Amino acid sequence: MSNRRNFIKTTALSATAATFYPVISRGEKIFFNDLPEANTLPVGIADYTFLHFDIPQSIQMMQRLELHFMSIKDFHLPLDSSRAKIDEVLKQYRDGGITIYGVGVIYMKTKDAVDQAFEYAKKVGVPVIIGVPDHDLIDYAEEKVKAYDIKLAIHNHGPEDKLYPNPTDVYDRVKNRDSRMGLCLDIGHARRAGVDPSKAVLQYGKRIFDLHIKDVTKGEKDGQAIEVGRGIIDFKAFVKALRKINYPGHCSIEFEKDMKDPLPGIAESVGYFKGVKAGTV
Amino acid sequence: MSNRRNFIKTTALSATAATFYPVISRGEKIFFNDLPEANTLPVGIADYTFLHFDIPQSIQMMQRLELHFMSIKDFHLPLDSSRAKIDEVLKQYRDGGITIYGVGVIYMKTKDAVDQAFEYAKKVGVPVIIGVPDHDLIDYAEEKVKAYDIKLAIHNHGPEDKLYPNPTDVYDRVKNRDSRMGLCLDIGHARRAGVDPSKAVLQYGKRIFDLHIKDVTKGEKDGQAIEVGRGIIDFKAFVKALRKINYPGHCSIEFEKDMKDPLPGIAESVGYFKGVKAGTV
């Protein structure tokens, strides 16, 4: 027990050592030390994948794929949910063997929206918000990050986006801020914006708090979402880069093809990513 | 054209150089030279996977997974099929973008069954039969291999099998025979029989003509079929072994779990295997 205590003591939320990372759900901290290789780079799901499904259907798909980590989107848990509603939804996932490790993507266009996002994240009990704050709200969001001790992972979109068309736009705006300000690197949008995901990983290192993993048909604006492994992203290089920075977070698949019948595509994507992990140990 | 001719000339059926391998369908030979890495160890399907589905349903699943190679089982093309029936079925697959590269598993308990198997394979136009001849028919089968110039890949089952409980039983019976007598290495059954698939690959090398790829929950008789990557088989070692022997054949997934709703499991298995390939290039 004293080991565990020391362990927690030495583990700051901003720590990024590969051999331990915290999974926090509803204030209950679970720490994994010296994870076996098979458990590093844990695969999860970005909930947007399940846009057309309710919570039980989503849980069923994740169970079939033996996935246990998810960042939840507001269509499954509205931002203005009551404490009772949050408890009810979290229980559904927990009973299904799923840990909600983050919330988002949450768009923040006003101070009120920033306030709401952090209150929501606190109530849900997650250590990270995946968010898109307007540029002029980043200062305010940073104050909240400090006040709540909750990380903000700003999500990059692709070349068509006004705010964060590529991960460099995020990085440049957070690199000199509190260490809990960082990125949710969306590798599909990044690649469409001409950014090599593995180079982004090496460049932005400890500022990467979350990942949206997908593949795209081409490295241009009109590149389409496709099963992981079928597109143009070099996943071997990507996984090697993640290992190199000792990425301590989750590797969440966001599958945006066949969204009304996504299970086979999610399965292939999860399989491929796990296979690359196994092949690069 | 003369290049192609030279190429065919230098390519014996028993050749195992990695940079070229023949895919033969209905007597029409297609040769791939200097395949890009992505196309080596091509993934296919062992048709037993589709036990509960008709041909159009099977084709639809393979198309969704972008799979183009299959060894066909008799429930989709009976051994006593007429020329017209064979043509009709082959056309269905060909129109679906699928090459039938082998037939089987075919059990041969009599000389008549051996005769029928080779006539069938010839009519279907495949270079290999995946088969299980009774021990006392192996001499006779070898005669047929020579007469038809069609390879016989003897399929190992697991520890409960009377004839070929592990791949060593196959190898020992073919190793001093015609070079077209070899194995269809079923890695799941092998692993249940206590044989490490990667060691088997290195040991049996050029005698391996086909693969049934799967994973199992444990290395014992009662090990269960499971999605590739979730079980105990070391796929990194397995793929590295295949590369080492320049395995020239197909890597066919045989998925035997959830057989009435197999698509997600096949997808995960295919994804994982491709991911390991990508991770070990």
Helix/strand order of chain A = HEEEHEHEHEHEHEHHEEEHEH
How many beta-strand segments of chain A? 12
Number of DSSP helical runs of chain A: 10
Structural class of chain A: alpha/beta
Largest interface: A-B, 28 and 28 residues
Mean pLDDT of chain A comes to: 89
CATH domain class name of chain A = Alpha Beta
Strand order of the largest sheet of chain A: 3-4-5-6-7-8-9-12
What is the name of the CATH topology of chain A? Answer: TIM Barrel
What would CATH call the architecture of chain A? Alpha-Beta Barrel
Fraction in beta strands of chain A: 15-25%
Largest sheet of chain A: 8 strands, parallel, barrel
Question: Can you tag this structure with a few keywords?
Answer:
homodimer; TIM Barrel; 10 helices; 12 strands; alpha/beta; 8-stranded parallel barrel; 38% helix
Can you offer a commentary on this structure?
Two copies of one chain form a homodimer. Chain A is an alpha/beta fold. The first copy, chain A, has a single domain, classed as TIM Barrel (Alpha-Beta Barrel). The first copy, chain A, is 38% helix and 21% strand. The first copy, chain A, is built from ten helices and twelve strands. In chain A, the strands form three sheets. In chain A, strands 3-4-5-6-7-8-9-12 form an eight-stranded parallel barrel, surrounded by six helices. In chain A, helix 4 links the parallel strand 5 and strand 6. The radius of gyration of chain A is 17 Å and the shape is globular. The first copy, chain A, starts with a helix and ends with a helix.
